[in-house]
Amino acid sequence: MNVQDIRRRLESIVGRTVERIGVSKKRQQELMGAVEPGMQPSGSEPEAGPAVEAMRLGVVEAGSTWFFAADASSETAERTAFRIASDRLDPALRELIALLVQTSAVDHSAPSLQEEETEAQQLGRWLADRLESGEAPHELPDTLRLKSRLFTEMIPFLLIYEGAQSSIGGYEELHQLLSTFLEREVRVVPLREREWLLLVDRLDVLDLSEERGEGDESDRELLEAFGLGLYELIASEWAGIFNLSVSEPLQPAHGLVPALRILRESVFLGKTFHVTRHVHLPWELDLERLIYSIPGEQRERFMERIEGRAVVLADSETLATLTTFFQMNCNVSETAKQLYIHRNTLIYRLDKVKQETGLDVRNFSDAVSMKLALLLDKVTKD
Q1: Are the beta carbons of 353 and 322 closer than 8 angstroms?
Q2: Which of 22, 68, 296, 364 is deepest in the core (most CB within 10 A)?
Q3: Any residues with CB less than 8 A from the CB of 373 and at least 6 apart, and which?
Q4: Does this model's pTM top 0.90?
Q5: Which of 88-92, 134-138, 213-217, 279-283 has the lowest mean pLDDT?
Q6: Cβ atoms < 10 Å from Cβ of 65
Q7: Which residues contact 205 (CB under 8 A, 6 or more apart)?
Q8: Which residue segment(s) compose the domain that 367 sits in?
């Protein structure tokens, strides 16, 4: 098993960062010397000394626990170890980690970038074919060589480039840019000429520390922040228009096709309803998804019932005011601050909308009707 695969599996088990370190023979002796008396568990073989047994179950030193792997090559000068920044691992958890590390022979021969690209292209072609045909298999087939490395939790991002001419580099350039940005491995899967699936290890994006408090950002807020940073990185490196969508964590070996279909749909809905945005979050587009599914005749019938809508929707200032008002959760003070206008000026504009349409957007029911009208107007125009 590849070193990175073992590291990712360990991180998914312990919920914290795991560091892979090559340990020299001298350093191994130092760690064995750090073994505390009495660490040998009951029932262990009498010929297995406490130091040897502790090396198997993990050596605790300076607030960290070290687990040593069974290297595939005994001739290597160093031995592979995985360091976990915790000295309070549950004994049952240590047994589980030791079992995984010891039974997974470490393969130091990582695939070349060309081999990785070939595997990614194979997966990309298979995914593109499934999306084109409308199929939605839950599991990836065993014939895909990349499948064995897609059982850990990852976060899928869909990157789509739009423009007359492509200024973005190929697989190698994009892979290098993203890996440098994250300082970790990123799987880049080309789907079409200007469309890429990006798979990022969950622990590289979300803070799974037990120390996270109630006031900290939620997982979805962290995903949004990471997606915005990723978009800014790519947009600053290459010219052109990019759209990015992000899904919640999953095991890519299971459920990748349905998740990818939702990501594509999210980009489409985001471009339709929110033309100024470039990062589209599926969980924020539920209302837009519902509205787009309404037949055209019913959309027009609803719009006709709102008197004066044409005047309101044709005025850019009023439109911007209503959009910001809804973004600020109908809070008058926050909306005025966001628009850099006096509170009385905002109230005047809202009263003007009420006068034209009969809808007072400070009232919940009327606010819902106006919000629907704003969204329906965008798809009715199309």
Answers
A1: yes
A2: 68
A3: 302, 303, 306, 309, 313
A4: no
A5: 213-217
A6: 21
A7: 155, 222, 223, 226
A8: 294-381
